[in-house]
Amino acid sequence: MMFKNIFVNILLIAATTFSLLPGLASCSDDNDAPVVLAGNGISDEQWADVNDADLKGEILIFEFTAAGAWTAVSDGDWCALITERGQAGASSLRIKVAENQEAYGRSATITLSVEGYSEPCSIVVRQGEGFLEKGTGTYREINNWVYGIMEKNYLWNDNMSSLLLDYSLDYQSFLTSVLDGIAGIDDANHDDGSWHDGTRRLYYSYIESNAPTSRAPGVPYTDSGMAIVPTILGYGDNAPCGFAVKWVTPGSPADIAGVRRGDFISVVNNIAVTESNYQNLGKSVLNGNVTIDLNIVEFNDGSPKVTNRVPSVMVGKDTYMDPAVYKYNVMEASDGKKVGYINIMGFHMDFDTDILSAFKYFRQQNINDLIIDLRFNTGGHVLSSTLLATLIAGPSHSDEVYVRTTYNKARTAAGEVGEYRIGNPVAPDAVNGYAPIADALGNALGMSRVFVICSNYTASASELLINGLRGLDITVNLVGTTTQGKNVGMEGWRKTWSNYQFNFYPITFYCENAKGFRDYADGFTPDVVLDDTNIYPGDFGTLSDYLTNAAFQWAYTGNKPAATTSSRGRSAAVRTLRMTEELQEPLTRRTGGSIILRD
Hints:
Elements: H1 2-19, E1 42-43, E2 50-52, E3 58-66, E4 70-74, E5 79-81, E6 85-86, E7 89-97, E8 104-114, E9 121-131, H2 140-153, H3 171-183, E10 194-196, E11 199-202, E12 206-208, E13 220-223, E14 226-233, E15 241-248, H4 253-256, E16 264-268, E17 271-272, H5 278-287, E18 290-300, E19 303-315, E20 318-321, E21 325-332, E22 338-344, H6 352-365, E23 369-373, E24 379-381, H7 382-393, E25 401-406, H8 409-413, E26 418-421, H9 435-440, E27 449-454, H10 461-471, E28 475-480, E29 488-497, E30 500-505, E31 507-512, E32 528-529, H11 546-557, E33 574-576, H12 581-588, E34 593-597
């Protein structure tokens, strides 16, 4: 037994001595943790204490050497890691920096950790510092001019002093930033813009330079001069495919070549139009210098029949002036009743003589009723709208208020208000008088009612006509679809700078009639709702045109046409294809407005 105890004691002593030897690790579970070394394990790093990134965004690449496997984490979503981990040795940290669209500079910290080392490494990325100016500053003088006008005259100018603005931007971006800033304060300027499904499609307030950015009467264009819609006539595999001509601008190359509304273009440059090529061919038609086949489309019980009218006509490309009046004529019923028709695409003072000529003709013809086609009229000069109202209303309404303009709080408190009166040439933007308005009384019809063709394109000075005539107790019967709902108007300022002309049109007033009504921001709903979007077009001012037909029947019979009123079955078997931006552009580049010109 004594021998056994001595042996056990020797083992215990040996074990104890062994465990105390330097440099030998214990085999117990408590001491299995890896050794953590001091420092960050990074050398040869290629970054500074603060690393600046471009405001427009960029890819940053930082080189370094890691003593072990490494990981990285960014605390900013805008500063995203492309490489989040790597192995020991020469390494690259790649970072994608997003564009800074905020008003201030920002910074993010990337934390880089190497396995086996106690201290992480921090990399700071900065994108701007303090308040950011992101533009070149080229248009700073123009932007100050814009702000000065808006600060005094914009209809919703109450909170402009609280906006943080970047005057270094280009003039378009600067104006948008002002409008967006005001919109961000309780949607204050909700009525400055066109809305669709709760989203603002555009602001009405706008600025333009020498190169026009909007289509309006009096603006020169260089193209073929027509609007077209890609259309399939029928549902079979062999159904004709082509372009239905929506309109032709008078005096344009297409007009000179004999193209007219309602023509069907089936062949372009000897190539048949199909669903697969219509986008490219349509662009060619609009640009001009093409040969096209023109066809007549007739409907028999809803079935379309295509007959060639003019084969291979050449349509050129040239510069032309877009007029305000596209057409006027008189339609006569079987019993001799005469209905005048006038298509006005926009209100522009340079073309008021054309409107006067049309009404002189209507007086000579002793018309009984009048149809005013405003379906593509997005507005224009208030003086021109007043002239048209005078020609309709006549001497019995002389000097009565047609439209009253009401301004922002400060201008209203100062007693400022504008009035346009029937037959009165003196107006807010014509303090010395606009003679054509007085001349209009001598050619006026004195109508007690009119029929207006309208659509969602009908806006501003066109809606002003509807509202203003109703304020005079003249019956305005509407046929078509709901108007746009622009119950506001703009004053226009001009400035010449660095050999460039700038025209600025901010919304500065509400339009109300003699009865004080101005609440039509949702548009005017027609008395007879008829949508001609998928109706094959007939010529303006004829019974083959769906909406003209309906208005004429109402004027002739005195009874509202039914919503199912057809125009010789022109709605049957007609399919319109998707409109490209190029095809849509002639329909949408008319911005219009209720415009008052200022010095």
